[in-house]
């Protein structure tokens, strides 16, 4: 998982627009005891849904709007063009009736972390594939949004000004790791430091930028124990355990490309997040570090041959990919493992190696539920196909015993017939 970064670009300046019978007012009402205020050029388009035009001087279909939701006490803002705002607004009315899941007994706590400021820690033992936390973003925007007239902090202050005071303060509570002399302000600095990827429901292939009060608190590790994903269906960010986590252990994510060697990872972290990584992987003894770097380099080289596509390289072999899977397992590279297992499955199919195909179908199901959660719809469907409840299949995968692939072969063949 990679964190996002925000870029701005100039708008076209078009001035014609239809508001679809919404009533445009001439002012916005500032909140009491709130950190941020709207720009003098911001105008309310609608109170319910609560939509504010970022800059009334830039009218047109490409002008930027702020949609605050829920309308009564807004805790989230969606920043996009008018067209996408209306598309999203129709969806959020339905989604708000299905709030994100919340654990009655949170599995995590945020507290001080030596050398890192704050961190997130497990309050109890957490199982692999378990959903640790889920929350809606307090801020989400499309990269490249126009800030031509409301440039700089004024634009971002307006984007937060319609939120409840508590929601505004939750953004300010996030760390700003950007140096004072780099020209970004308090809000944009927090976006550069903390932004995660969000996928809007009307275009799940798009990559938006999002800030979360709790999810953004997880610190980096080059062999993280947690995985971030975003659910377009519920418009929530999710943190999942990629391995068993002990009580008191810090929860971590990977901020940069984890299949890069240590020096490249450190450079990326230093340039984007302004800290020197001292995680256990980066602090390995020199001999072990060389081995780790070599494994990550060959995995990276294979991914370069994939080119970001879905087809396996013409010169790839099953034996090669099996070795790469072993490397990824050795270094705890779970996201890399999920990609490599798909390659192995396709190579086994190509070779008509039915035994290996079954193995990688099962392994693929296992890695899917680790990255998407034990409650993932796809995992639940596969469990049913195998004649099990999802909880039963989780027990099979996590019992500590070698997987009986022959058993799964019989179940899969029976599922095909049914």
From TrEMBL:
Pfam families listed in its UniProt record: SET
SUPFAM superfamilies given in the database record: SET domain
Origin species: Mycena chlorophos
Name of this protein: SET domain-containing protein
Domain named SET: residues: 106-256
InterPro entries assigned to the protein according to its UniProt record, in alphabetical order: SET_dom, SET_dom_sf, SET_domain_protein, TPR-like_helical_dom_sf
Superkingdom of this protein's organism: Eukaryota
């Amino acid at each position: 998982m990679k964190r996002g970064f925000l870029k701005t670009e100039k708008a076209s300046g078009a001035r014609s627009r239809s508001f679809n019978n919404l009533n445009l007012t001439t002012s916005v009402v500032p909140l009491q005891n709130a950190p941020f205020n709207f720009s003098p050029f911001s105008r309310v388009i609608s109170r319910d849904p609560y939509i504010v035009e970022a800059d009334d001087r830039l009218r047109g279909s490409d002008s930027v709007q702020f949609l605050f939701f829920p309308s009564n006490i807004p805790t989230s803002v969606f920043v996009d063009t008018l067209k996408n705002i209306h598309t999203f607004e129709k969806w959020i009315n339905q989604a708000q009736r299905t709030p994100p899941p919340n654990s009655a007994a949170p599995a995590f706590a945020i507290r001080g972390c030596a050398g890192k400021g704050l961190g997130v820690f497990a309050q109890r033992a957490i199982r692999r594939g378990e959903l640790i936390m889920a929350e809606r973003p307090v801020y989400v925007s499309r990269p490249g949004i126009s800030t031509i007239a409301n440039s700089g902090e004024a634009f971002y202050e307006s984007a937060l000004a319609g939120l409840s005071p508590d929601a505004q303060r939750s953004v300010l509570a996030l760390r700003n790791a950007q140096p004072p002399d780099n020209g970004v302000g308090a809000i944009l600095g927090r976006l550069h430091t903390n932004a995660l990827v969000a996928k809007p429901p009307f275009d799940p292939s798009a990559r938006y930028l999002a800030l979360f009060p709790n999810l953004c608190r997880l610190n980096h590790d080059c062999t993280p124990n947690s995985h971030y994903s975003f659910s377009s269906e519920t418009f929530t960010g999710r943190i999942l355990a990629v391995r068993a986590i002990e009580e008191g252990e810090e929860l971590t994510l990977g901020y940069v490309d984890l299949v890069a060697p240590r020096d490249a990872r450190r450079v990326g972290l230093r340039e984007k997040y302004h800290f020197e990584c001292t995680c256990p992987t980066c602090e390995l003894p020199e001999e072990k570090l060389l081995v780790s770097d070599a494994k990550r380099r060959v995995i990276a080289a294979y991914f370069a041959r994939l080119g970001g596509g879905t087809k396996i390289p013409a010169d790839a072999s099953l034996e090669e990919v099996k070795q790469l899977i072993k490397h990824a397992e050795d270094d705890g590279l779970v996201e890399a493992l999920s990609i490599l297992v798909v390659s192995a499955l396709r190579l086994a199919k190509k070779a008509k190696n039915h035994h290996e195909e079954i193995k990688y179908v099962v392994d693929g199901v296992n890695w899917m539920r680790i990255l998407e959660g034990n409650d993932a719809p796809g995992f639940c469907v596969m469990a049913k196909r195998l004649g099990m409840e999802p909880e039963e299949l989780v027990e099979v995968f996590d019992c500590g015993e070698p997987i009986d692939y022959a058993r799964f072969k019989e179940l899969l063949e029976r599922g095909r017939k049914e």
